[in-house]
Amino acid sequence: MGTEATPSCSNCQRLQAQLDALQAHVETLQATIQQLQAQLAAARKDSSTSSKPPSSDIVKPPKPPPPQGQDQRRIGGQPGHPKHERALFPPEQVNGGAHDHYIELCPTCGHGLQPTAAAPRVVQQIEIRAVPRTIEEHCSHPGWCPHCQKVHWAPFPVTIERGGLVGPRLTTLIAYLKGACHASFSTIRKFLRDVIQVTISRGQLAKIIGKVSQALEPPYKELLEDLPTAARLNIDETGHKQNGERMWTWCFRAGLYTLFKIDPTRSGDVLIEVLGTEFNGILGCDYWHRPKSAQIRLIGVDTLQHQASRS
User: Fold this and answer.
1) In the listed set 168, 194, 220, which residue is the last one of a domain according to the structure?
2) Is a pLDDT exceeding 90 seen at residue 132?
3) Is residue 146 part of a domain?
4) Rounded CA gap, 57 and 237, in Å?
5) Residue 233 burial class via C-beta count within 10 angstroms: exposed 0-12, middle 13-18, buried 19 and up
6) 227-283, pLDDT tens digit by residue?
7) Claim to verify: residue 236 and residue 301 sit in the same structural domain
């Protein structure tokens, strides 16, 4: 009795086959709908419905198509636009020598050419030296003290003692590649090896960056202490992973400088820690976290949109 009987007539068999096919098609459509619903839910996620940062809510809209009858603009100079050429370096910056080239015979007919008052064509070429580095050797010679019965070496200059293997300019270049260019230690190592022709290990590069960080600590603290006195500040934060742990980079944009602070939390306690419980300036933010105990005048995106809609 548990086995479903097979229809005996041919018409019933045909209808049963159609029913089975329709059921299979419905199951396929249901699976497709579930997949599309999951994709739509993921696309609708923003900072208010997930852990995504507010900066991810800003999506650049696609460029509108050109007006009807107007062709797509080509890359490069546009017809009717003025020509822009690179300005020549001033004479005091030309340190590689000036070279004059003359022509005596006409390249077309071979006759001699006469001097003319026309201005010469000038091409300035920038080049780097073959190996842009210098290697200095500093020797500390010893001396024997018969009174102390010890050997003493002459002290190195402070810049040599603190700099060690890498001088100030090369240290600045390494810090620029790491901080401003966001290059990895492997990329910096390859650049130094191929361009400057010096090999420095990744561990040594890490020590150099740590030395630069220590040198920048005093001015960083000065700017951090100056933030509460600013008249206007724009603040935002974004999340990232640091050694596998969730961290947040806070950005404080003042009138003359921008300061970044890495903190393990995204809460408004960071604002209280940096700005204090009272801030008399204007704070621009996205209203993600408003410190309840801080007396802060906030001008956020929502406030500006509300004021614009009323005006």
Assistant:
1) 220
2) no
3) yes
4) 13
5) buried
6) 999 988 999 988 888 888 899 999 999 999 999 999 998 888 888 889 888 888 888
7) yes
